[in-house]
Amino acid sequence: MGEELSTVFKALGHPIRRKILDILKSSPKTTGELNEYFPEVTRYAIMKHLNLLEEGNLVVVRREGKYRRNFLNAVPLQEMHDRWVGKYMQSTSNSLLNLRSVITENGGRKAMEKNNQFQIEQEIFIQAPREEVYEALTNRVEDWWEFRLAPKGVTSQFTFDAVPGGQFKEMWGGKAGAVWGNVYYVNAPEEIRLFGHLGMQGAVNSAYTYRLLEKNGGTLLQLSHTASGVIQEHWEQEHTKGWQYLLGTLLKNYVEKNDK
């Protein structure tokens, strides 16, 4: 953890790199698009800054043809918050979807974003073998997955059948329940793909993928989540924060604690 945080602090140590993160917070950008924000800086210098941010795991790069698209990965910042801030204050906002407040307070209806899609890319490093991380993501999800769709006060159980055609679902009260994801691709323990609304309402297509790479004696977990359709304005931000908390805090802590 100390070495990881040192790399993060180094990545945050230059104002241009901090500005790049501010820009990517709004939306992913290609390297060329980022360069336009800094007319006084060469493209080569921007590339060096991006490489340092990537080494600090604060930027995730996805290749799209000949372009390099850069995404903010806020998980390391969440880990810093958890270490120095989170344990000293009561959390009031850790929720993947804030489903009940959206449905009951807002009627599930808010203004739609100008864009009708979003894409979330995150990476976290877990100090544990890939097989153990995969096992926790699937067969042991009940042990760490915190968010529930069951009515308040009702106990529910999670199961994750990690085979093509299987489901990641929550059940309560006999026959009541919800499907969080339908599995359509499995290559254990390297990758698993699912589609599911994850609490979003209405005409929405949503899919998410876990990729697990062996790295430095541990596992680099890559999350990709895309959604399109009638996207409400708060959904991207809430899912981004929710994934950070679920994977960067709950899953990471659960696996690393049990691996000791």
TrEMBL record:
Which Pfam families does the record cross-reference, listed alphabetically?
AHSA1 (PF08327), HTH_20 (PF12840)
Native organism = Bacillus suaedaesalsae
Transmembrane parts of this sequence = none
InterPro entries xref list: ArsR-like_HTH, ASHA1/2-like_C, HTH_ArsR_DNA-bd_dom, START-like_dom_sf, WH-like_DNA-bd_sf, WH_DNA-bd_sf
By sequence similarity, the record places it as follows:
Belongs to the AHA1 family.
Which keywords does this Swiss-Prot/TrEMBL entry list? DNA-binding
Chain ranges of the HTH arsR-type domain: 1-92
Q: Which Gene3D superfamilies match?
A: 3.30.530.20, Winged helix-like DNA-binding domain superfamily/Winged helix DNA-binding domain (1.10.10.10)
The organism's place on the tree of life at top rank: Bacteria
Name used for this protein in its record: Helix-turn-helix domain-containing protein
